[in-house]
Design goal:
heterodimer, A: alpha+beta, OB fold (Dihydrolipoamide Acetyltransferase, E2P), 2 domains, 5-stranded mixed beta barrel, 7 strands, extended, B: alpha+beta, Tick-borne Encephalitis virus Glycoprotein, domain 1, 6-stranded antiparallel sheet, 5-stranded antiparallel sheet, 22 strands
Chain lengths: 129, 786
């Protein structure tokens, strides 16, 4: 009986530690471009898309390239593995998840933050009058 | 207008009736005042009928496009086909809570009759009515019958004389001449939801959510009555029913994401998906531990805890996905519904968790403690471990989904976990579950002889070992995946073996084996379709065949599907067989974004999945236009162009309006090199002026295109005549010149049909189990009554 209890406790403790380590590892920290460049770690950077600078989709590599300015006004080239994110044009800000690589920010994911678009607002009510 | 006010009143009536039913039933259970029974039942029926009427009114408002109601305006429009128009009933929060409440109320009618015969009516129905009244309270806070001018008073309500000839006007107060305008068209349904799954999937999910309230109500009833054993027998059919329906809903959501949303797989660990998965996992864990208690009376507290927890998980999921607390950490947009809803959802969860666990704590000392009588080699222990693993999966998934809340508390900034978190934490548990789902079936209750265990498991172990060995030889694979595959095949073989035995003996009991075969198939489907998925980004220039993934793919052009959507036809050929798939892509006015939907070919052994990424139009190099007088020069790209003179001007032809050509001589210089002569021309006829394109290649063989687009003659001084020269600069050499190109992500998903087959098998297993448990519960009651 005692052996069983010990085994159960060991299983639970191992499970909890495994879970906690995984949780912390997979929770990508927020950072700015400067910190991201120095650490080389995978981070999330919040910023704004530079509309007047080059942005294009490379068909061969299936990468979307654009320029982004972080909250410290630092502008960097961002290469996203994938197509242009949805609602990219109307996003008020974007969050790029990735790390610095060969002088640019290489993103695995870019989330767009949009003005609340699904709830009806006063502006859209006027449009449908 | 009045009908909407009636709808609002009916919701309130329903709320008070449900509250009254909860109160009367509680009085009956406390003091046995059976004369109140009729009051309690009538109150419950009144609540149900009022709610049904309110729902019917809402449906009528939706179908007849009454855009003076904010909810109807917000989610529907006149151009939707009927099934989708009906589905806008539950496209928003107000409507989906209405649907949830409606199903809860209707299930309660059956529950009442069921509980009557089991002598559980007062306790079960008092708790159940309380749950219903909480749902109805939500409808009072988030009123689906709110008028649009009440939501936007500043924009819509006006005072003064009503201007003539303006439609869609409601006079609110004739004496003070207050009136309001309302929209003639609705905002429409989110295009992501415009799909036949929208018609069926939310309905099934809400039936499942509603059903999860029943085991909870039974657990509380058991605690109130101090009946710690027989409540299980009464509650089990409902627990299995909830598990079946919610499980169907969960996997349907996965199929929806796979087939139309283009997530590439059937599971994305998205908060919305997770929030229906967690209650299901806990429900399934509960099904297993109640089995032990039925057999030998163990796990009394565990069963109470799991039944309570399943419902609390439903409430927590609702809180996560409906309160706006997750913010924008996911691809789903979580609308912030306001403070009221947030606190109501949070309070709701706390109240029912506190009620359940508080009662459990109070009663736990009085509960009989049954000493553990089973050995490690017993079915009881395997069931316990399995339930334990399922609960752990539920906990890990809940923690992962709650990450934005946890990180906000810890670091002040919300962030979501990566998908890898779910895979890493759940893979070992998945292995354990797969293994136990096979082993448990082969063990005896109480204790099995080691020798007999070995003998009965040997065939399955041999089959699983051989399959895994083949896999290890032919595919380089991680150890964990190999173990997972081994356990899944083992479970498949073991359950087939056991199932066959039961089928020949007593087919009534086959439900468990069938469900486990389904789980094993599902696990194998996960492995084949996720691990051996072959994905490639392919650029398909129009009408140019490309070889990829063993297919010849040709993009043959696009065609409109309806007002907004475009289908992109891709022909696929393999060994002489031709297929066409049509992924769609369009710009949606509603979301103001690009929508992409995949298309797939489903074969027995695999799916070919084509998700569109983008359409690249023909590349147009930079066009530069320069105006040049005779003798003047201009920089164009890296060239210096000088307009020398006109040549061969046929004035007679121009005057007689015959066809004529004007030529202009240019001198083009590259850097410091020698200038070269280039002649551009424009041909005039009665049809107009037609310039001719002249190609110029520089020393690096980059092509400039010259075009004499216009001549601005100066009649006084022909020497001052000007030409307009359009020059197309060469393409960036990094980008090859192409025509219209469709970029797709093509992938092959081997044996993904195993996932769907497994799901169907699992659901059938659940169904067979319900049949068995219902008839058991019925026989037992008959027997008890003598």
């Amino acid at each position: 009986m005692n052996g069983k209890v010990i085994a159960a406790v060991v299983v639970i403790v191992v499970g909890v530690i495994l879970g906690a380590v995984n949780f912390l590892e997979s929770n990508v920290e927020y950072a700015d471009f400067g910190t991201a460049e120095r650490s080389g770690k995978k981070v999330q950077v919040k910023g704004e898309w530079m509309r007047d600078m080059e942005s294009r989709f490379d068909m061969e590599k299936a990468q979307f390239t654009f320029y982004m300015r972080d909250d410290n006004q630092q502008v960097e080239k961002v290469v996203l593995e994938g197509a242009k994110p949805n609602n990219f044009e109307i996003a008020t800000s974007v969050v790029a998840k990735g790390r610095f690589q060969n002088g640019h920010f290489h993103a695995s994911e870019v989330l767009t933050k949009c003005p609340s678009k699904y709830e009806g607002d006063a502006e859209s009510v006027k449009k449908t009058l | 207008m009045t009908i909407g006010i009636v709808g609002g009143i009916l919701v309130k009536l329903s709320f008070f009736a449900a509250l009254a039913a909860a109160f009367f039933y509680y009085r009956i259970s406390r003091s046995g005042m059976t004369h109140l029974t009729a009051f309690a039942r009538n109150s419950y029926h009144l609540a149900t009928v009022s709610l049904m009427s309110a729902a019917a009114i809402l449906l009528y408002l939706v179908l007849s496009h009454q855009f003076q109601f904010a909810y109807v305006w917000n989610y529907s429009s006149t151009d939707l086909p009927l099934p989708l128009l009906i589905s806008t009933f539950y496209a928003g929060q107000e409507g989906s809570f209405t649907l949830w409440a409606l199903y809860t109320a209707l299930i309660g009618v059956f529950l009442m009759h069921y509980a009557m015969s089991k002598e559980y009516e007062p306790e079960v129905m008092s708790i159940y009515s309380l749950i219903l009244s909480f749902l109805l309270l939500m409808l009072i806070v988030k009123n689906p019958f709110e008028f649009i001018w009440d939501r936007f008073p500043n924009d819509l309500i006006q005072t003064g004389p009503v201007p003539p000839g303006v439609a869609n006007i409601v006079v609110l107060d004739a004496a003070k001449s207050v009136w309001a305008r309302y929209p003639a068209e609705g905002k429409g349904l989110n295009p992501l939801l415009q799909n036949y799954w929208m018609v069926i999937h939310p309905q099934i999910l809400f039936v499942g959510f509603s059903a999860m309230a029943v085991p909870y109500a039974h657990a509380i009833a058991g605690l109130l009555k101090k009946d710690y054993n027989s409540w299980i027998r009464v509650a089990t059919p409902w627990l299995v029913f909830g598990g079946m329906v919610l499980g169907t809903g969960v996997i349907m959501g996965g199929y929806w994401a796979y087939e139309t949303l283009g997530w590439g797989g059937f599971w994305g660990w998205d908060p919305v998906e997770n929030s229906s998965l967690v209650p299901w996992l806990l429900c399934v864990a509960g099904i297993h531990t109640t089995l032990v208690q039925r057999k030998n009376g163990a796990y009394v507290k565990t069963n109470f805890a799991l039944s309570i927890l399943t419902f609390v998980a439903v409430l927590y999921s609702t809180f996560l996905t409906r309160s706006g607390v997750l913010g924008e950490t996911s691809v789903h947009s979580f609308v912030d519904p306001g403070m009221w809803v947030y606190w109501l959802l949070l309070g709701w969860m706390i109240v029912f968790a506190a009620l359940g666990f508080g009662l459990l704590f109070i009663r736990s000392r009085a509960m009989p403690v049954k000493p553990v009588e089973h050995s490690i080699f017993s079915r009881e222990f395997a069931l316990f471990l399995g339930a334990f693993a399922l609960t752990f999966v539920a906990i890990f998934v809940t923690i992962g989904t709650s990450s934005p809340i946890i990180t906000t508390l810890m670091k002040g900034k919300a962030s979501a976990v990566e998908m890898s978190y779910y895979v890493k934490t759940n893979l070992p548990l998945g292995i354990a579950i797969a293994f136990l789902s096979g082993l448990g079936q082969l063990l005896w209750w109480k204790h099995s002889q080691e020798k007999s265990v070995l003998r009965s498991t040997l065939p399955s172990i041999v089959i699983a070992g051989a399959t895994t060995l083949l896999m290890a030889v032919f595919a380089t694979e991680e150890v964990m995946i190999l173990i997972f595959a081994f356990c899944s095949v083992f479970s498949l073989a073991a359950n087939t073996q056991v199932g066959y035995g039961i089928y020949r003996g007593n087919p009534k009991f086959i439900g468990g084996s069938v469900a486990h075969v389904g789980v094993a198939l599902l696990c194998l489907g996960f492995i084949t379709s996720e691990r051996y998925d072959d994905t490639k980004t392919v650029s398909l220039e129009r009408n140019k065949p490309v070889e990829a993934l063993g297919y010849t793919m040709t993009y043959v052009g696009y065609a409109p599907i309806d007002r907004e959507r475009f289908g992109f036809n891709v022909e696929l050929e393999k060994n002489g067989t031709r297929h066409t798939v049509t992924p769609t892509m369009y710009f949606s006015e509603f979301t103001r974004g690009l929508m992409r939907h995949p298309d797939l070919l489903n074969f027995l052994s695999r799916d070919l999945y084509l998700a569109p990424l983008s359409l690249e139009e023909e590349q147009k190099g930079d066009l530069k236009s320069v105006e040049l007088q005779k003798g003047a020069e201009a920089r164009v790209g890296e060239l210096t162009v000088t307009f020398v003179d006109f040549s061969d001007v046929d004035r007679m032809a121009m005057i007689e309006s015959r066809e004529f050509t004007i030529k202009a001589k240019l001198s083009v210089k590259e850097g410091t090199g020698k200038p070269r002569a280039v002649t551009v021309s424009i041909r005039g006829s009665q049809r107009g002026m037609e310039p001719e394109v002249v190609l110029y290649r520089d020393h690096r063989d980059r092509g400039y295109e010259f075009l004499l687009s216009r001549i601005l003659p100066n009649r006084e001084d022909p020497a001052l005549s000007t030409i307009v020269l359009d020059v197309k600069l060469p393409e960036d050499p990094a980008i090859a010149r192409r025509g219209e190109t469709l970029v797709v992500e093509a992938s092959i998903k081997p044996m993904i049909n195993l996932v769907w087959m497994g799901t169907v098998t699992l659901v059938i297993g659940f169904f067979l189990t319900i049949l068995r448990r219902v008839s058991e519960a019925r026989e037992r009651t008959r027997w008890e009554r003598g």
